[in-house]
Amino acid sequence: MAAIPDGPVKSETELEVKPDSVNDIAGNPNVVQGIGGTPKTSPSVAATVASVTPPDITDRQTLLAVLQFLKKNKLLESEETLRKESGLCLDNEEQSGSVDGGSVCATGDAEGSDASLLSRVSGVTSAPAAAAVTGAPVPAKGDDQPDVSVVLSAYSQQGDPALYQVYYSGLKKFIESVLDCHRAELSQVFYPLFVHMYLELVYNQHEAEAKDFFDKFHGDQECYYQDDLRVLSGLTKKEHMKGNETLLDFRTSKFVLRISRDSYQLLKRHLQERQNNQIWNIIQEHLYIDIFDGMPRSKSQIDSMSGSLAGEARREANKAKVFYGLLKEPEIEVPLDDEDEEAENEEGKPKKKKPKKDSLGSKSKKQDPNAPQQNRIPLPELKDSDKLDKIMNMKEATKRIRLGPDSLPSICFYTFLNAYQGLTAVDFTDDSSLIAGGFADSTVRVWSVTPKKLRGVKSAADLSLIDKESDDVLERIMDEKTASESKILYGHSGPVYGTSFSPDRNYLLSCSEDGTVRLWSLQTFTCLVGYKGHNYPVWDTQFSPYGYYFVSGGHDRVARLWATDHYQPLRMFSGHLADVTSTRFHPNCNYVVTGSADRTIRLWDVLTGNCVRILTGHKGPIHSLAFSPNGKFLASGATDGRILLWDIGHGVMIGELKGHTDTIYALKFSRDGEILASGSMDNTVKLWDATKAFDDIETDDFTAATGHITLPENSQDILLGTYVTKSTAVVHVHFTRRNLLLAAGSYNP
Amino acid sequence: MAEEKKQKLTNTLLPTESMKAIGESIGLSQMQEETCQVLSEEASYRIKEIAQDALKFMHHGKRRKLMTSDIDYALKLKNVEPLYGFHAQEFIPFRFASGGGRELYFYEEKEVELSDIINTPLPRVPLDVSLKAHWLSIEGVQPAIPENPPPASKEQQKAESTEPLKAVKPGQEEVQMHNKGQGTAATDAKGKDQKKLIEGSAMKLKPRSTHELSVEQQLYYKEITEACVGSCEAKRAEALQSIATDPGLYQMLPRFSTFISEGVRVNVVQNNLALLIYLMRMVKALMDNPTLYLEKYLHELIPAVVTCIVSRQLCLRPDVDNHWALRDFAARLMAQTCKTFSTTTNNIQSRITKTFTKSWLDEKTQWTTRYGCIAGLAELGPDVIKTLIIPRLQVEGARIKAVHEGPVVSNIDKIGADHVQSLLLKHCASVIAKLRSPPDNQEQYRADYGYLGPMLCTHVVKARSQAAIQAQQVNRTTLTITQPRPTLTLSQGGQPSSTSRTPSIIKMPNSITLPMQTLVSARPSTSTQPSPPPTKFIVMSSSSGSSSTQQVITLSSAQSAPTSTSPVTTTVPSLQPLVKLEPGGSQGTGNAVTVGSGVSRTVQKYIVVSLPSAADGKSQNTMGQHQLSPSSSAALEANAVGSLNNAVTVKLERPESPSNGNQSPQPSH
Question: Which CDD domains does the UniProt record give (chain B) (predicted)?
Answer without folding.
Answer: HFD_TAF6 (cd22931), TAF6C (cd08050)
